[in-house]
């Protein structure tokens, strides 16, 4: 009888004990001192080594850390990783992260970093980083946005960073979530003082053996809308700056009268030279209805 009573009592108490210890852990964690990654070098009881894993985007930074005390390690969005080789790129942390560091428990943490200088080489593996915090208000605004909305798309993050730091096109930045995509492109237009382009562009990013980065636009796509005052059949083509036709859509579309006709546009531009291009919609009589420009 006593054993059964004890077992039943433990069953009732167990959830409360779990809750108590969980709360105690959270309470203890909240009481820990918070130290920025950029400040740990000034702490006599903390040893760190920050090196490159290789690469220029994603988890390409490795932190090894040992401490003689418990504390919260904070890596703010906008933390910069400076390579020892000045010919290599400085990386930026796009998302704020916090880690609990336990006394005398060595940790190895892989950290996100994104290139801020596409003209420089990608940091080589095992290269050592020093630390700083960005003073670029446009870049800080961008990474605060990325951190707030926890954006994970590596390609979009890198293109957005280059848009701010290397004057790259907003067209290269696109997310799968329409609302986030609109918000991100609007923010980039604001901080760079550029217009939001009507189209988007997908690019391939390659790094050679020496660490040099090259980009190649593969696809241009977007939504096109216009008023159509009379029924007609339309076609489309893409021409370069000299008016030479680079692409003709073999399909015709019969369009009814409408205040707002919406069409999806997409064209493969692999192998095309960099420069100015236009997509032109025209009717069966060759009359131009709409012309939209883009750059690759």
SSE series: HEEEEEEEEEEHHHEEEEEEEE
Biggest sheet descriptor? 5 strands, antiparallel
The SS-based structural class is: alpha+beta
Strand content: 35-45%
List low-pLDDT spans: 20-29
Query: Helical percent range?
Result: 10-25%
* Number of DSSP strand runs: 18
Spatial gap, N to C terminus: 82 Å
Number of helices: 4
Outline, from the CA principal axes? elongated
| CA radius of gyration | 27 Å
* Average of pLDDT: 92
Tally of individual domains? 2
How would you describe the overall organization of this protein?
With about 300 residues, this protein is of the alpha+beta class. It has two domains: about 35-195, no CATH class; about 215-295, Sandwich (Immunoglobulin-like), CATH 2.60.40.2560. The protein contains four helices and 18 strands. The strands form five sheets. Strands 13, 14, 15, 17 and 18 form a five-stranded antiparallel beta sheet that branches. A four-stranded antiparallel beta sheet has the order 9-6-5-10, with helices on one face. It has a three-stranded mixed beta sheet with strand order 1-4-7, with no helix packed on it. Helix 2 (about 135-150) runs antiparallel to helix 3 and helix 2 (about 135-150) runs antiparallel to helix 4. The longest helix is centred in the N-terminal third of the chain and has 30 residues, at about 1-30.
Salient structural properties:
2 domains; 4 helices; about 25% helix; five-stranded antiparallel beta sheet; elongated; alpha+beta; four-stranded antiparallel beta sheet; Immunoglobulin-like; about 300 residues
What is the strand and helix layout of this fold?
Layout: H1 2-31, E1 34-36, E2 46-52, E3 59-67, E4 71-75, E5 79-83, E6 91-92, E7 97-101, E8 107-112, E9 114-115, E10 129-133, H2 137-148, H3 154-165, H4 178-192, E11 199-207, E12 213-228, E13 232-240, E14 245-248, E15 253-255, E16 258-268, E17 276-283, E18 288-295
Parallel strand pairs: 1-4
Antiparallel strand pairs: 2-3, 3-8, 4-7, 5-6, 5-10, 6-9, 11-12, 12-16, 13-14, 13-15, 13-17, 17-18
């Amino acid at each position: 009888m006593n054993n059964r009573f004890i077992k039943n009592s433990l069953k009732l108490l167990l959830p409360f004990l779990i809750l108590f210890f969980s709360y105690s852990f959270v309470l203890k964690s909240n009481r820990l001192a918070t130290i920025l990654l950029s400040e740990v070098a000034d702490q006599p009881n903390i040893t760190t080594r920050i090196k490159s894993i290789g690469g220029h985007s994603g988890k390409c930074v490795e932190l090894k850390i040992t401490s003689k005390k418990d504390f919260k390690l904070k890596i703010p969005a906008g933390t910069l990783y400076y390579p020892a080789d000045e010919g290599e790129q400085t990386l930026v942390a796009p998302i704020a992260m916090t880690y609990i560091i336990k006394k005398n428990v060595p940790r190895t943490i892989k950290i996100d970093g994104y290139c801020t200088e596409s003209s420089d080489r990608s940091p080589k593996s095992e290269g050592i980083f020093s630390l700083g915090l960005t003073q670029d208000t446009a870049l800080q605004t961008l990474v605060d946005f990325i951190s707030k909305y926890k954006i994970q798309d590596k390609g979009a993050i890198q293109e957005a960073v280059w848009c701010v730091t290397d004057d790259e096109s907003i067209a290269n930045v696109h997310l799968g979530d329409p609302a986030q995509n609109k918000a991100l492109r609007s923010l980039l237009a604001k901080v760079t003082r550029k217009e939001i382009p009507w189209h988007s562009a997908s690019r391939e990013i390659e790094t050679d053996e020496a660490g040099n980065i090259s980009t190649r636009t593969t696809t241009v796509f977007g939504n096109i809308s216009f008023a159509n005052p009379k029924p007609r059949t339309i076609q489309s083509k893409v021409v370069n700056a000299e008016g030479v036709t680079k692409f003709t859509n073999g399909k015709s579309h019969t369009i009814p009268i409408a205040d707002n006709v919406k069409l999806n546009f997409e064209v493969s531009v692999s192998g095309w030279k960099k420069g100015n291009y236009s997509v032109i919609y025209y009717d069966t009589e060759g009359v131009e209805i709409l012309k939209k420009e883009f750059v690759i």
